[in-house]
């Protein structure tokens, strides 16, 4: 339910942002809608640039401050409540899950990638993450970061992202169609193999004090937890789940038929699933609220800036 609420919220933000952009693209002929800063959650690579700039210079980006606030919020969530961003908030995760559920209905099951290939493909998302980290955190000197954040391209990064979805090229459509098809056949194809954001959050989530824990005295070895796990973790044969793939989705816990056999545990102490979800939501809400109250949420760009910049968006390629 929470996943779909966030999905609906993302759609709402997307439409509102689309109407905001349209106002400037039509030179004011269509109505004005305020710009929702939440769309900056779709700028993770730029937020890495912002993060390094902030750490090295103390300057918190004012053009897309919400991008960094959301990035830091998701990092904090991973450190405390595993990859809960992936299982509760990310709209791609929601679509991915809906896709394999459709596939399960159509084919009666979801297919599994051959074990050796599966391990190799899981490595791809870490390779992509390494590429971005090397490029941005190690490859870009501070002056280049500042130039990036001051450039019109960064100012319009959200508009370019919108255009990616509203003006798709044949290549984009083909790639998305192939990924969608693979997501119907295989569980969470994009998340499991290709998402560098998930790879980063997964690595950080290893530090989380929360772990899915199995209490062997109560376990009846039915294997349901392993079979339902969207991340294909063999929960049945673990005492605690220490995997960067675990999203804390609680699917295993909620399907376990043996009372007290499986729980999300905080430093080995089982906690009610509802409490875990409440903590996830509080972390997310707290991060956003902290950004708003500290003045790091609304862009510093003005109406006039957008009036001049947005008509140029299609001409900016880098
Ligand atoms: S089903 Fe359980 S082990 Fe699998 S990802 Fe969800 S919480 Fe983690
Ligand atoms: S679903 Fe519960 S009872 Fe069944 S194997 Fe997993 S932990 Fe044990």
User: Major sheet, described briefly?
Assistant: 3 strands, antiparallel
Ligand set: iron/sulfur cluster
Report the total helices: 16
Cα shape? globular
* Count of discrete structural domains: 2
- Uncertain residue segments: none
Question: What level of helicity do the residues show?
Answer: 55-70%
**How confident overall, as mean pLDDT?**
95
What spatial order of strands do you see in the largest sheet? 1-2-3
* Termini Cα gap: 39 Å
- The tally of strands reads 3
Structural class: mainly alpha
N-to-C SSE string, H for helix and E for strand: HHHHHHHHHHHHEHHEEHH
User: Strand fraction band?
Assistant: under 5%
Radius of gyration from the alpha-carbon trace, in angstroms: 21 Å
Structure keywords:
3 strands, single chain, 16 helices, three-stranded antiparallel β-sheet, 2 domains, mainly alpha, 318 residues, binds iron/sulfur cluster, Alpha-Beta Plaits
Write the layout of secondary structure elements.
Blueprint (H helix, E strand, L loop, with lengths): L1 H24 L18 H14 L7 H17 L2 H6 L1 H17 L7 H24 L3 H9 L1 H4 L1 H10 L3 H16 L3 H6 L1 H10 L4 E5 L9 H5 L22 H5 L6 E5 L2 E3 L1 H21 L9 H7 L9
Antiparallel strand pairs: 1-2, 2-3
Helix pairs in contact: 2-3, 2-6, 2-7, 3-12, 3-15, 5-10, 6-12
Bound molecules: iron/sulfur cluster (SF4) (2 copies).
Could you give a short description of this structure?
The chain has 318 residues and is mostly helical. The protein contains 16 helices and three strands.
């Amino acid at each position: 339910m929470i996943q779909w609420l966030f999905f609906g919220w993302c759609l709402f933000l997307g439409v509102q942002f689309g109407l905001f952009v349209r106002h400037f693209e039509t030179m004011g002929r269509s109505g004005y809608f305020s710009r929702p800063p939440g769309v900056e959650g779709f700028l993770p690579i730029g937020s890495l640039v912002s993060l390094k700039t902030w750490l090295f210079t103390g300057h918190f980006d004012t053009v897309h401050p919400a991008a960094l606030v959301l990035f830091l919020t998701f990092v904090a969530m991973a450190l405390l409540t595993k990859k809960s961003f992936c299982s509760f908030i990310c709209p791609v995760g929601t679509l991915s899950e809906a896709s394999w559920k459709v596939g399960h209905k159509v084919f009666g099951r979801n297919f599994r990638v051959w074990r050796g290939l599966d391990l190799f493909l899981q490595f791809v998302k870490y390779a992509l993450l390494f590429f971005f980290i090397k490029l941005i955190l190690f490859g870009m000197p501070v002056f280049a970061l500042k130039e990036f954040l001051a450039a019109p391209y960064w100012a319009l990064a959200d508009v370019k992202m919108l255009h990616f979805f509203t003006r798709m090229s044949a290549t984009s459509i083909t790639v998305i169609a192939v990924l969608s098809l693979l997501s119907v056949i295989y569980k969470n194809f994009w998340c499991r193999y290709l998402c560098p954001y998930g790879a980063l959050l997964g690595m950080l989530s290893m530090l989380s004090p929360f772990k899915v824990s199995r209490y062997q005295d109560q376990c009846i070895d039915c294997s349901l937890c392993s079979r339902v796990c969207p991340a294909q973790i063999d929960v049945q044969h673990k005492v605690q789940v220490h995997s960067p793939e675990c999203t804390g989705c609680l699917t295993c816990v909620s399907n376990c038929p043996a009372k007290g056999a499986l729980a999300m545990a905080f430093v080995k102490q089982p906690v009610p699933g509802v409490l875990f979800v409440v903590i996830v939501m509080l972390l997310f809400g707290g991060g956003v609220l902290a950004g708003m109250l500290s003045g790091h949420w609304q862009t510093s760009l003005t109406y006039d800036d957008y009036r001049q910049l947005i008509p140029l968006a299609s001409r900016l390629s880098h």
